[in-house]
Amino acid sequence: MTTDILFLFLLFPYFLFAVILAFFVPGDLFIKRLNLPILSNVTLSICVGMVLWAFQGFILGYLELRYLSYVYIIVCLILWIWKNRSAYHTRIRPDALNINILLLGTILAGISVQVFPILFMGFKDAQFLKFCCGATEDFMYHMELTRQVIRHIPPEEPGLANIALSNYHYWGNIVIGELIRVFRLPFVFTHFQYFGLLISSLLGLTALSFCQITKLKKITAWLLVFFLYFSGDFIYILILITRRVLDVSPGALESGPIFLYNPPRAFSIVILFAGLSLFSVWIKKKNIYSGILTAIVLGSTIGFKANTGIFALTGLAAVFLFFLFRRRFTMLVPILLSAVISLTIYLPTNKNSGGLYYSGFWRFDDFATNPNTGLAMLELRRITYASQNNWLKVLLYNIFFMILYTISTFGSKLVGLLQSKKSLSSLDLEMNILLIVGIIISTITGFFFLQTSGEANSFNFIVTVYIMSSIYASLALSYWFSKMSRYFSLSIVALLVIINLPRAITESQKTVIMVQKSGGISNEDIHAMLYIRDHLEKNAIILTQQPFYIFLAERSIFLGKTGILRSHNVNYAKRNEIVKKIYSEQNNEVLKDILMQ
């Protein structure tokens, strides 16, 4: 496993070559026909190519014909060369959205802030192999899941050998794993630094493509990019009011700087923006070709992150009803196709996930009990009123906590509520229907429901709304700026930067502190794992109390982190009992029998 930092830079051009062959070339075969501007053509080609790459990996993996991935690449390359043998430079329109220094600088700064926490994943110094920073446990889980994908599709549950993955999405892992498998790329660098840089870059590029295709103003594009990369929360302002201290250390539900902390969501948001761009093309052209492309991309989002997929599907369902009401029956076919694609992807792994259940105002009451918020006394009053059956005051407190939670979580993006008819008309009616219905349904789901599988992980519905509300915050501010003087508009922009930067600064400081304090995997442990890798049979199963570094041995784990298994609603009770017996058994003969079984 390559971890030498020198190879991080030396192998990066080869990674770009793999991206061009596996993503851009197949995607461009389909996108070129839409005759988009250069920026949108290249960006959407890569995104559509990623979706197609995941599809081929998914289908060929289930059919156990994975060697055909090479045929897929060769055929696409031959078709692409033949199709572009003479007309490549004449088929693409120049960009309508000029990329100025401010816009480019914002994207580059945003990429730097987002990628910084994962730069040290797999970093090797004299003493340790470091895996820092960000959401390290989640990162390690996804690294193991990608390794499982490389071995076989469908993958095993990481941390539960010989048990198929259930109640989770893994298409992002297919994209990474298939690229590593086919092109023999370095595992750690590709998984973290290379794809972190690619996905973070695509976040800004897909946002610009969306603005370009929907013909939004340049200021709207800049605001959207700023919100996506740098938007933060107002939790620190709430703490300043309630506790009279300036404290930005409590973590946010979501913010631009921690976008890459949840790899499936990061993948899904990029794919969603690409799908929305294609949706806009379809609404304008009204042809079946662009409609099918839209269905393929938006239908696949559920494979990257279920919450994002549900956002897209509920929005599409509303558009479906709109077309049905308007008797535009030919427009219904792509939406039905997207539903079929989503079910095909979702059901094999998630058919037993169990759905949602109503939780009332639990999320807001839980927010109030957090000692950082300074609302504990108010929560005690609410509980007292509940014990006295004074339900009116209980409801008022719940509503008050909900308002504080919303303001603290969404921060400056709440400006998106200040819309006018003109600002909303910047987008097509169908686009507004998709986005607004998706936002409403996901907000209600995240606010008042928990998941049978994952329970409080339903907060991911709120996170999707948080990210996608950037569009309406940008539209609103852009509209109101047109009504203000230049100096007043600049003052608002300056205020926007000032109130959002604390989160970016804090997250970067956390990374620096974690790098300085973190140890890592010692050289002795590395040698032990490599010995297992080189000398133990391939199907061996490892039992360890340190599953953090077992990936180096490239073997399956008997029982890993139970917290993640529990959140996925996976039954590991029998394995847990066996582990207890193994570690408590004193008789070597009995222990040998248990291990053999």
Describe the fold and architecture.
By secondary structure, the chain is mainly α. It has two domains: 5-357 and 402-514, no CATH class; 521-596, no CATH class. The chain is built from 26 helices and nine strands. The strands form four sheets. Strands 1-2-7 form a three-stranded antiparallel beta sheet. Strands 3-4 form a two-stranded antiparallel ribbon. The radius of gyration is 25 Å and the shape is globular. The model has no long low-confidence stretch (mean pLDDT 88).
Task: Please outline what is shown here.
The protein has 597 residues and is mainly α.
Please work out how many helical segments DSSP would assign: 26
- Estimated share of beta-strand residues: under 5%
- The beta-strand count equals 9
- The number of domains is 2
State the low-pLDDT regions, or none: none
Spatial sequence of strands, sheet with the most strands: 1-2-7
- End-to-end distance: 32 Å
- The rough form would be described as globular
Share of helical residues: 55-70%
The secondary structure category is mainly alpha
Mean pLDDT: 88
Q: Can you summarize the main beta sheet? A: 3 strands, antiparallel
Rg over CA atoms, rounded to whole Å, is 25 Å
